[in-house]
Write a structure and sequence with these properties.
Layout: H1 2-19, H2 25-35, E1 41-48, E2 54-57, E3 63-64, H3 70-82, E4 91-93, E5 114-116, H4 117-127, H5 130-139, H6 142-152, E6 159-160, H7 168-174, E7 177-179, H8 181-192, H9 199-209, E8 227-235, E9 238-246, E10 251-259, H10 271-288
Antiparallel strand pairs: 1-2, 1-10, 3-7, 4-5, 6-7, 8-9, 9-10
Length: 290
């Protein structure tokens, strides 16, 4: 109980410090120019971990997470592992009843086929496999347990909505999950700093988040030799991404969220995806060149 008190105090101080960061006015002006004319709602949060400066534009507005909700599901699963209610290499049995219709890899498994928990986690994060993700949400104790842990971390709006009692209205508005650019970036930052569950658990989560198959948007604008951890999410009217970049002379985190997008296409030139690539390129050139 005493350790939990000090952890909560540490998280409160960290959250307060994040809100107290100085704004990088030059970068903010550059980003605002980039966002001008976007046909939809957009929010951005950027944190330069080297100099401590931030940019926050609609950073506390609530947006759909789409597949970014898989970061909270990952955290919930790791919390269960830490409590010894699950084991990372535990063998599980897939059932046809778990299938979420789509093109997921796990959904192509035969009924009663065996698979390790670690591989289900890999599929959720690397391939953004929805069947794997919903299975893990259940194994993590469901949306209510994940949301309670998010609340203990100081997250006020980031929540799992789907298959979570009492959140039907939120699901109708935001879908599977909801967040703000600041909170999703803060979750990533806490993982980077080893502040979620334990240093070892955070390190494992960071490694898992560094293996994103969907690397043609924000990730594509960072040189291949640079360490990147990321998660993106997309539905018709909402495209979002959160990313940590650890370069030779820079370390930064950013999250861009969009919603009510006029362009709902799935081509590479989708307006929100183009904007995401431009933002990532701008940040890499701004930080990486110093």
């Amino acid at each position: 109980m005493k350790n939990h008190y000090f952890l909560c105090l540490l998280l409160l101080c960290a959250t307060t410090a994040i809100h107290a960061q100085k704004t990088d006015k030059k970068l903010r002006a550059n980003i605002q120019s980039l966002l001008q004319g976007f046909n939809g709602d957009v929010g951005v949060y950027v944190h330069d971990l080297e100099k401590g400066k931030t940019v926050a534009i609609n950073a506390d507005s609530i947006f759909p997470t789409a597949s970014m909700i898989k970061i909270p599901i990952l955290i919930g699963t790791m919390h269960k592992i830490e409590d010894s209610e699950l084991q990372y290499h535990q063998e599980l049995i897939y059932s046809d009843s778990l299938l979420y219709p789509g093109v997921d890899i796990l959904g192509s498994f035969k009924d009663t086929e065996h698979i390790e928990l670690s591989k289900i986690m890999m599929l959720m994060l690397t391939m953004s496999d929805n069947t794997a993700s919903l299975w893990l949400q259940s194994l993590a104790g469901g949306g209510q347990r994940i949301n309670a842990y998010l609340d203990s971390l100081g997250m006020k709006v980031t929540r799992v909505n789907s298959r979570t009692p009492g959140r039907k209205d939120n699901q109708s508005k935001y879908g599977w999950g909801q967040t703000s650019p600041r909170e999703m970036a803060t979750l990533m930052e806490m993982i980077v700093k080893g502040q979620i569950i334990s240093k070892a658990a955070s390190d494992r989560m960071l490694r898992l988040l560094s293996r994103n198959y969907w690397d043609e948007e924000a990730v594509s604008q960072v040189p291949a030799g640079v360490f990147v951890a990321s998660k993106n999410g997309a539905v018709d009217e909402s495209r979002s991404e959160v990313m940590y970049v650890n370069g030779k002379h820079c370390r930064y985190i950013f999250c861009i969220c969009t919603n009510n997008n006029k362009d709902t296409s799935w081509a590479a030139n989708n307006e929100a995806w183009v904007l995401t690539r431009k933002l990532s390129k701008l940040l890499w050139e701004y930080y990486g060149s110093r």
